[in-house]
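Please check what follows.
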Amino acid sequence: MRTTNRLDLLQIFRYFTGLALVYFAATVIVTAIQTGEGDSLTQVQAYVNFGTNLLLLIYLSIYWFRRKLRAFYLPIALVYATVVPIFSNLIYLADPYESIWNIITRSWLLLPILIVPIVLIAWQYKYRYVILIVIFSTYVELFVLIPHINMINIDAFLILGGPLIRAFAFGTVGMIVNRLVAVQHDQRRELILANIRLSEHTQTLERLATSRERNRLARELHDTLAHTLSGQAVNLEAIKLMIPVSQKEVHAMLEQSLLNTRAGLAETRRALKALRSQQLEDLGLDIAIKNLASDAASRGDFIVETHFDTDLPDITPDIEQSIYRIAQETLENIIRHANASHVEIALEHDLNSLLLSISDDGQGFDPHNLENSDKLGIQGMRERAAILRGELSILSGQEGGTTIRLLIPLLWNGVV
């Protein structure tokens, strides 16, 4: 069954059934006025079709049937609307004096009544169901007409050709509707895919605009704050040389100011570097972390090894950003505190999670002492992990060596 909006189809079906109801009611009234009778074969056929459409309209208008019958609700209505009019034409066989040509003529009058269910079947279901209905209706008519043929001649050909021509017409109309609906579905699917691609393109442009804005801010901060702090450090060094050595208290204050200025300058440069995350967006997570590790190894004078899975899943930019920042903070802590000679970085995954592991052989520490400390770097790492419903664990000891493990659940973050 197709995914066509069934509410639209039911609305059209009810509209058609209502019109057919009015048509057959008018047929009964007009025939009665013209003939003065109420039980002619024409009127009996009109009664049958009037009752058929009345029951069908009631059936289509009561929600209880749709809720109870579910998938069988619409097929029952379509089969009923198709089969009953076909058999109603057999009423004329009750009259032995009825001409076979009149029977055929009246069967053609049912064409508008039958064409609508055929169209609805082709609209909602596969084409093979249209073929089944067409074969059934044609078989019924031929089964009725063949016994009335006494000899094979041109009249017999015309009599038998009528149902076949109508079957061809029904099949053609059904095929056209079925193909049009298929094209509509393909176009709708292409439109959805185009909207998805457009959304992805918009997100890419937004990320690019964000990256450019970050780079602009980095340049502004570098040209203002970083230069100011550098100039301040130079001025403090010059003042320190001008102050006599005997003024130890002044020298101590200058030394502290120099330390604060240099620390602020170092943090500013680190923030500027963090602000410029262009390589993460341009090169991807694995290469960005490798470049980060290589730069850290050169500054920290240690050897670094990286082990990344070759088939890493597609993850969102937010997850990539968090992993990159946590790796960056960890490497900075190794440079400043660990005094390590060897560092290993691994990025692995399974069906359910993604694991980042960074280990060093440097000076260890007691992780429990971090609980009450004001280490903003570790706190920021934990906050990033919590946003992703991840788990950040720190394994270390006084005997040396530290391992940072970040475990991120993929399913919760929409990665399949």
